[in-house]
Design goal:
- This protein has 464 residues and is of the alpha+beta class.
- The chain is 44% helix and 30% strand.
Length: 464
């Protein structure tokens, strides 16, 4: 096969495609670098404001000292009654928890990059049933001063505490969770232990800021959360999907609901809070992420994955054109067209940072189509021959844009394009006698003068 010009042509075309993978990798690395710069903006906003927020609370922590009498050996007596004290925190979870939130998302620009900070006003209502606690002070059971706990993953985001009413009484709020573990947040001293007998109704309004996700742990025996936001790109995640949600170009509204029957959270949280450490932040929660929609870097990175396919389709079209006509193209002409296809992605990246992805795609497509149309007209000596290639290139750019914007149908659409391209090549070349084409090329070279053959080495020359 390699003894014929046709075989060498195929080998050199494959080599051209492999060679073009080098600039494609360079453009791909540039996309990653620019994307990393974008991520640094998000990190800067998080460091200067607040990060992801997860709210655990309200719950009531009750200090308990339990006195027990056991028979144990001592230095004076082999077996004697010994009184031992054990102190621990008993956590009292709410019977019901209702959270209503309104969220506003602020977009901040650093250089050419943007990030989002959200501001939330939360109305929290909870009821505590004393029957659920089951504590009665006695000679062997001493109850300390209880306090209400609100855990927040990043306390820098705590804004104004507009209301804090417990049983209709306004109480003061102290910084820190009040617990000995690493939980951060605020706590409310409740004074005497009378609240254990009466129960508690909590009504509070809290301002909370952050970046990224917002989560609320459904502590209540029955828990509900409603969130209204002006951000049109929510990312619902976590252990509980909203039971209802509405998303529009102006924002979203979502409602979550869960109970201990579904999440067994009473057992989980008591175990985690008692053990301490960072495990409490892994509790299941109602969660929504202020997600950035697929930006220009993600879309350009996805587009460049189709670059090799685009180059092979264009090269195949040129190869079929050469086989159908007497015109021949030099490997350098293949490479220049291939480099223009690579340049498309660089132009797309540069423009998308300024004018957005879709306008940048249209502009880069028109520029790529224009330069290739002008170049191919000079190579093929005919507008009639170059215009179909230019039109086909623009159609391929349009198909690629559709692939990027329809992930659910990307495989089907991509397979259809490949099938159509292969079918076209097979139909156009179905009557070709490839052996006769190669023989004619060899014979035509053998008829050339010997001097010219010696000078130009026509036995290894594929393109004229």
């Amino acid at each position: 096969m390699l003894k014929s010009p046709l075989g060498w042509k195929v080998v050199i075309l494959v080599g051209c495609v492999v060679l073009l993978l080098v600039p494609l990798m360079m453009v791909s690395n540039l996309i990653k670098e620019r994307s990393d710069y974008r991520d640094e903006v998000a990190d800067t906003l998080r460091q200067s404001s607040a990060g992801k927020q997860k709210l655990i609370g309200p719950l009531i922590a009750v200090p308990v000292t339990e006195v027990t009498t056991v028979m144990a050996p001592t230095a004076d007596d082999p077996l004697k009654e010994v009184r031992r004290k054990k102190s621990y925190i008993r956590f009292w979870l709410p019977e019901s928890l209702l959270v209503d939130g309104k969220q506003q998302v602020e977009s901040r620009k650093i250089g050419i990059y943007r990030g989002q900070i959200w501001h939330g006003d939360l109305s929290i209502k909870a009821e505590f049933d004393p029957k659920r606690l089951g504590l009665t002070e006695s000679e062997n059971l001493q109850i300390g001063e209880p306090f209400m706990v609100f855990g927040v993953s990043d306390p820098r985001g705590i804004g104004q505490l507009q209301t804090m009413n417990i049983n209709g009484e306004s109480l003061g709020v102290e910084p820190g969770s009040g617990l000995k573990n690493d939980m951060q947040g605020i706590h409310v001293p409740l004074g005497s232990a009378d609240i254990i007998r009466k129960g508690a109704k909590v009504d509070m309004v809290l301002s909370l800021n952050g970046t990224g996700s917002f989560s609320v742990v459904p502590l209540g025996r029955n828990s509900e959360m409603t969130l209204i936001s002006d951000w049109p790109h929510p990312g619902f995640m976590g252990d509980f999907l909203p039971t209802k949600r509405e998303i529009s170009p102006t924002g979203f509204q979502a409602h979550w609901q869960s109970s201990w029957f579904a999440n067994n959270l009473d057992g989980k949280i008591l175990e985690m809070l008692s053990n301490g450490g960072a495990s409490e932040w892994r509790l299941p929660a109602f969660s929504v992420n202020i997600a950035t929609p697929a930006d220009q870097y993600q879309l350009t990175d996805r587009a460049i994955k189709y670059a090799a396919l685009l180059i092979m389709l264009i090269f195949s079209a040129f190869f079929v054109f050469e086989s159908l006509t007497a015109r021949q193209m030099h490997p350098m002409e293949y490479l220049l067209v291939g480099l223009s296809l690579v340049m498309f992605y660089l132009v797309l990246l540069a423009l998308s940072e300024r004018i957005g992805f879709t306008p940048a795609w249209i502009t880069a497509s028109l520029l790529g189509g224009a330069i290739n149309g002008i170049y191919l007209q000079g190579v093929m000596k005919s507008w009639r021959a170059s215009l179909p290639f230019t039109s086909a290139l623009l159609v391929l750019y349009g198909i690629m844009w559709s692939l990027l914007n329809s992930e659910d149908s990307a495989l089907l659409l991509g397979t259809g394009v490949l099938f159509a391209a292969l079918s076209t090549v097979m139909i156009l070349t179905r009557r070709f006698d490839w052996y006769s084409i190669a023989s004619k090329q060899i014979a035509s070279k053998q008829k050339e003068p010997a001097a010219k053959v010696a000078i130009e080495n026509d036995e290894l020359r594929v393109w004229k």
